[in-house]
Amino acid sequence: MRRKKIMGLWEIEKQMEMDAAYKKKRVELMLKELEHMLQTISELREKADVFEQTYGEVIEVSPEYSEKAATIAHELGITMPGIPFSQDMKEKPGLMERLTGRGRFYDELGLQILDIAKRRREATGGIMTLAEIVLIVNKQRRSSVSQVDVAKAIQNLANAKLVPGIRKLPSGIRIVELVPRELTNDQVAVLSVASRTGFTTLEEVITQTNWTQERADAALKSLESVGAAKIDKSFVHGKRYFFPGLNPAE
């Protein structure tokens, strides 16, 4: 019967050194592979940002395309701005969430609203109607949320000082101020006049408010300067202002 060879101390130390070197090499290879994966994910995120900037408006107005884009982003494990992971978002608030206005549902809804605010800020001057925000929110979701729930989420954002909040115009239209800017009384009055159609003119503001021409013109120009009002170049007679953030459908 052959006896097993008993390893000497030197051989044991040598084997331990080889095992340690092998493990070290595996760790180095793992780190390199992980670094490559992270680089790939980073590149995917950058490409997703470019894609959203190029086609964001097309996706936004089409629930079908929005859902497809969300599915692809979910499978890739990335987030595309303005295209939330609808599969992972809580679609309806629970009883306690509805009673308190807080919880996961409202947190996710608030993040969705902040994303809309970020992408629409330049186009609207930081002012949108509550009805328009509800419309966009629901285009990005599989099931609809109510205006009440959207208002609660916005109030949470306002409490956290992330947005100024909701303001009801004299016309009855509720607008959401998306940037920390204090509207003057004259600006609010002009927004109220324009909220009926989304357009107004200097003459209409003067007629509706009984202001002087100088005061009405100054209020309109102040809204134009912050991007809330834009000149309607298609209007042939005189000057008409268009308010992209005002949706008279509410």
Describe the structure.
This protein is mainly alpha-helical and 250 residues long. The chain folds into two domains: 11-76, no CATH class; 95-242, Orthogonal Bundle (Arc Repressor Mutant, subunit A), CATH 1.10.10. Helices cover 59% and strands 8% of the residues. It has nine helices and six strands, in the order ααααβααββαβααββ. A three-stranded antiparallel β-sheet has the order 1-3-2. Strands 4-6-5 form a three-stranded antiparallel β-sheet. Helix 1 packs antiparallel against helix 2, helix 4 (104-124) crosses helix 6 (147-159) and helix 8 crosses helix 9 (213-225). It is elongated, with a radius of gyration of 28 Å. The chain starts with 8 loop residues before the first helix and ends in an 8-residue tail after the last strand.
Cα shape: elongated
User: What value does the Rg take, in angstroms?
Assistant: 28 Å
Strand percentage: 5-15%
CATH topology of the largest domain: Arc Repressor Mutant, subunit A
Mean pLDDT across residues = 79
- Helical stretch tally: 9
How many structurally independent domains? 2
CATH superfamily of the largest domain: Winged helix-like DNA-binding domain superfamily/Winged helix DNA-binding domain
Helix content: 55-70%
Number of strands: 6
